[in-house]
Design brief:
Blueprint: E1 3-7, E2 14-15, H1 19-32, H2 40-43, H3 51-61, H4 67-84, H5 86-92, E3 94-95, H6 99-107, E4 112-116, H7 122-130, H8 154-167, E5 176-180, H9 183-192, E6 195-199, H10 206-211, E7 216-218, H11 224-232
Parallel strand pairs: 1-4, 1-5, 5-6, 6-7
Antiparallel strand pairs: 2-3
Helix pairs in contact: 1-4, 3-4, 6-11, 8-9
Length: 234
């Protein structure tokens, strides 16, 4: 039986040292021609949300009534802003403990197809992983990204369709596993029809993630055997 494993990025696989939030501030200035009223990370919750969703809230808070019109330009500016700061990502960020080993171990399993389910727009998801050499374990063509839909649960179906189209295999709820670190990641999997493995490597504790409905909760990714058991159901 084939298994589609969909990884979140920020807080699950990598920590980019706050550079992602800085990129939002820079993108805002590039698109609106003025600095935000305050650092955006302090104005809106970013954890577990898509970039488009965050952008619309940020624009609304600044009195921009036609936020939808600005989404394409804001996404482009966000990609440019992160690219301009990729050296900072490498210097200030890190792959989270055990992430590379877990990815490599699942990559060696012939029944596993690994990709992403992330709120990041596609280019930024790739940039963050590539900064730490993690992209090589994933089939990034079949992922679901924040640039595909503003609602994260919808990205599960996006990833499934892409995986089926590329590999000729249908992945139902029992063959789809989402791995993330926030209650919103858990909700995306539950609502999208996937099993959920939550990791308490971000801002939320194991109890909060279990209460959100995760099928399994790990403290981190350091126990590779434990990750495999949680993901593959063994």
């Amino acid at each position: 039986m084939r298994v589609l494993v969909l990884w979140d990025v920020d807080g699950t696989l990598v920590d980019v040292g706050g550079v992602g939030a800085e990129a939002f501030d820079a993108a805002f200035e590039a698109v609106l021609g003025r600095v935000p009223d305050a650092p955006l990370a302090g104005m809106v919750s970013m954890a577990g949300r898509t970039d488009h969703e965050i952008t619309l809230e940020v624009l609304a808070l600044h009195g921009v009534a036609d936020g939808e019109r600005h989404l394409p330009a804001f996404a482009t500016a966000l990609v440019r802003a992160l690219a301009d700061r990729i050296d900072q990502v490498r210097a200030n960020g890190r792959a989270l403990p055990g992430a590379a080993r877990a990815l490599a171990a699942l990559h060696r399993r012939p029944e596993v197809l690994q990709s992403l389910l992330t709120g990041n727009v596609e280019a930024n998801a790739l940039a963050k992983l590539a900064a730490f050499g993690l992209e090589r374990y994933l089939d990034l063509e079949v992922g679901g990204y924040g640039s595909d839909h503003r609602r994260r649960p919808e990205l599960v179906a996006v990833a499934r369709r892409r995986a089926e189209a590329k590999h000729g295999v249908a992945f139902g709820p029992d063959q789809t596993v989402l791995i993330g670190d926030t209650p919103l990641d858990v909700a995306a999997g539950v609502q999208g029809g996937a099993r959920v493995v939550a990791v308490a490597t971000g801002r939320f504790g194991a109890g909060e993630l279990a209460a959100a409905g995760a099928d399994a909760v790990l403290e981190d990714l350091c126990d590779t055997a434990g990750v495999l058991a949680a993901v593959l159901g063994g």
